[in-house]
Amino acid sequence: MANPRSYHTVVVSAHCPVSLEQNRQRMLQFQVENSETTRLADLAYTTNAPRMHHSLRAVYSGASVQDIIDGLRKDLNKTVTSQEKPAGKSPVVFIFTGQGAHYAGMGADLFRSSPPFRATVSSLQRVCAAQGFPPFVHLISDPDTAIETTTAAQIHLALITLEIALVDLWKTWGVHP
Fold it and tell me: Most exposed among 1, 50, 67, 156, judged by the fewest C-beta atoms under 10 Å?
């Protein structure tokens, strides 16, 4: 299955400013030397998913490896400073994409497998129906939905419902913003 994302995030981190500078330089050198064979989705996954990041971070977003290279080059001309922060747990922040990130069945696996997620989606559908809004659960739960036949209202309702249901699900797992 092709990756539906058009933009990806690449993270470089380190314990101190000197190390961050060196890590960014190494990342830039590697990407310049391997830009023809590097898949952006793989690079983003490698720098994000399996890692615990250090306290200093540089984050790059782009639609191509060249975008990441350009961001690294731009940042390497800046000075990195470190601000001491008290040790402790980092706050959790929930961030969601804006409109345009929808696709049919965008929450189908969770809708099928997670009772708390499904309950929130169903509850919000009932609230919206009582207010006269069109049905939208099929956009979340059915990957075979013909997305081109849906209205903007249905898409917006599905996206915000998906986001609220995810927050509620994460809270059941003990993750709080």
Answer: 1
